[in-house]
Amino acid sequence: MSKLLKGAPVTEAINKAISQAVEGLAQKGITPTLCIFRVGERPEDIAYENSALKRCEKVGVAVKVEALPKDVSQEDFDRVLQSLNEDEQIHGILMFRPLPGHLDEEKARKMLRPEKDVDGITDGSLAGVFTGNGRGFPPCTAQAAMEILKHYDIELKGKRAVVLGRSLVIGRPVAMMLMEKDATVTICHSKTQKAAEIAAEADILIAAMGRLHSVGKEYTNPSQIIIDVGINPDPETGGISGDVDFQQVSDFVEAITPVPGGVGTVTTGVLISHVVEAAEKMYGEMNINGES
Is 0.85 surpassed by the pTM of this model? Predict the structure, then answer.
C-alpha cells in the first residue's frame, strides 16, 4: 500500500499556527474577520459556509455572512461589495461563485480588493502568484496541495512535476507555486498529446482535471508522489472520489492523497489562514501609516 498523505495532520498544524497568530492579534485588540459573501442559497455554498463557520469558531476567527437574494440587482450587488471592500473591520472576503447569470462576475472579480481576496480569484491575487511578489493570496485549493507537500517534507527542488489541468483555480497557479520551489514543471491539458507518457515520467503528479478516475496506472511510476485534487461524484459508491483511480494506483506509487480526506480537508484551513494573514498585513500597514 502506498503511503497516504492525509489532510488531517496538515490541517491540525495549520490550525495551531492560526490560533497562535490570533492570540497575538487579540493582544493588539484585533479580531481577524471573514465575510462570506453569498448570492442565493445553493446547497454546496451553504455546506461550505457551515464548514467555514465551524472552523473559524474553533480558532477564534470572526465571521460575517452577507447573503443576498438570488434576484439581487447588479446595482445592489455592487453597492454591497463596495461597502465590504471599505469596511476596515472585515479582513477577508470569500465570494461564492458562480454568480447568477444576470450578474457580471468579471466586474465583481475586478471590484474585489486583492488584499481582501482570501480565495485568490482576482487578477491582482493571481498576478502575485505568477510573479512571486508576495502580494494577494493564491487560490486556496492550490495552496492546500502545496501545504501537503510541505508538511510531509517532500522535496521539490530539481524534481520533475506534472500538473494535469490548466484552470486558474488550481492548474496554472499550482504550477507557478511549484516552480517557485525550483521544481521543473509541465502542464498537461485536454489537448495534450501522450499526456499519460508525460505524466508517467513525473516525480510529482498533481491531478486537477475534474474527471472521475481519469488518471490510471499508465500515468504513474513506482517512485511517484500523487496529489489528487479532484472531487467528483462517484456513482458506484454514492460518495466522492478523485481524478485518480485509487484502486489502480494505490499499491503502485510511493505516496498519494486520499479522496476524501486529502486536499479538500486542508482547503478551509488555508482560507482561514489567509484571513489571519490579511489582518496582520492590515494592522502592519496601519502602524506604518501612523493610524493606530
Answer: yes
The mean pLDDT of 208-224, rounded to a whole number, is 97
**Mean pLDDT, residues 99-124 taken together:** 95
* Residue 79: predicted pLDDT: 98
* Measured distance CA(166)–CA(269) in Å, rounded: 24
Report the pLDDT averaged over residues 172-185.
Answer: 97
> What is the structure's pLDDT at 282?
87
Grid look-up 437574494 returns: 69
What is the secondary structure of 54-76 as a DSSP string?
Answer: HHHHHHT-EEEEEEE-TT--HHH
Mean pLDDT of 223-239: 95
Question: Would strands 255-256 and 3-4 be described as parallel, antiparallel, or unpaired?
Answer: parallel
User: How far is Cα 70 from Cα 101, in angstroms, rounded to an integer?
Assistant: 10
**Cell 497516504 -> residue:** 4
| Average pLDDT value for residue range 12-40 | 96
| Distance set, CA 175 to CA 24, 146, 168, 182, 269 (Å) | 33, 10, 10, 11, 21
Q: Are strands 240-241 and 255-256 parallel, antiparallel or unpaired?
A: unpaired
Output 35 or 286, whichever has higher pLDDT: 35
Give the other-Cβ count within 10 Å of 69's Cβ. 11
CA–CA gap between residue 189 and residue 206 (Å, rounded): 12
Three-class SS of 127-166? HHHHHCCCCCCCCHHHHHHHHHHHHCCCCCCCCEEEEECC
Specify whether the CB–CB gap between 253 and 225 falls below 8 A: yes
Distance of CA 209 to the CA centre of its chain: 15
Residue 288's pLDDT is 40
Cα–Cα distance for residue pair 36/31, rounded to 1 Å: 16
Note the helical H segments in the chain: 8-26, 43-59, 74-86, 105-111, 123-131, 140-151, 171-180, 195-199, 246-249, 263-288
Residue whose entry in the numeric block shows the C-alpha cell 494592522: 283
